[in-house]
Amino acid sequence: MSNDLLWKVPEGEHVKLKKYDPDYVHPSFKRDGAEETLGNLGKEMGELQELLSAAQHHSLLMVLQGMDTSGKDGTIRHVFSQVNPQGCHVVSFKVPTPEEAAHDFLWRIHNAVPPKGVMGIFNRSQYEDVLVVRVHNLVPEDVWKRRYKEINHFEKLLADNGTIILKFFLHISQDEQTARLQARINDKDKAWKISSSDFAERKYWDDYQKAYEDALSQCSTDEAPWYIVPANHKWYRNLVIAQTLVDTMRKYKDEWKADLEERGRKELAALQQLRASNEVKGL
Ligand code: AMP
Ligand code: MG
């Protein structure tokens, strides 16, 4: 289902972002009722998270990338509103600290990946090292060029060790970015969101789009797929990301439940033995 709602990038695909409409809305989702649908998806996500957490078999890693104002923060706020905060771990990656910069680019990322049972959310990620770093020539070309392969190896390692990985690119148009920045200027209550660097970055729009195309083309794999999310409509963006997360987690539901039932049986059997030997008082 989710492939009609948004676009999963097939391994080896040469992505041209112009071919993907940031305004796209699948006819099965309507603006009216979107909140209720998101509420239902959120409830199911909460239940699935409880199983993920209890089964301790897998971790889940969601990577969020997108241009400034594309809605990374808003997505986290809305999509995870019904998930138990105890089972969630959000990490926002900023300009590397001196300590981070003194290590390889994946050092800080690996340190932040979710352990088994946890849903990890990356607000920006290892991909900044082939995006902002490339656009601003922060390292030589031969260094950023080999990072695509290094990222693929790293993500394979995580997947081999039980991490379910989903990567979402929030695709907005330049006009939509203009409108969102303008809204921040016009609305005094939103002015705190203004970051002068977002305005300065706008002139690099085309360079960023090109850098995103390469990251999406070179780093979408079966074990760590990229999804292009039509993100001009915030309500739609939230719905399709929630739907994709739920669809993905549902595939593991039976496995997690079977595991928990088995554990429950073992615990009950152990308790019965204790009772038989009269070591449990009052039960
Ligand atoms: P924000 O997400 O608005 O808090 O901004 C975080 C800033 O950190 C953005 O401008 C990113 O491009 C920047 N950033 C994140 N990771 C890196 C990196 N590896 N190298 C350079 N800048 C980065
Ligand atoms: Mg920003």
UniProtKB/TrEMBL annotation:
Q: Which Pfam families match?
A: PPK2
Q: Which UniProt keywords apply?
A: Kinase, Transferase
Query: Where does this protein come from, organism-wise?
Result: Dictyobacter formicarum
The source's superkingdom equals: Bacteria
Q: Which residues form the Polyphosphate kinase-2-related domain?
A: 31-253
Protein known as? PPK2 family polyphosphate--nucleotide phosphotransferase
InterPro entries, per the entry? P-loop_NTPase, Polyphosphate_phosphotransfera, PPK2-rel_1, PPK2-related
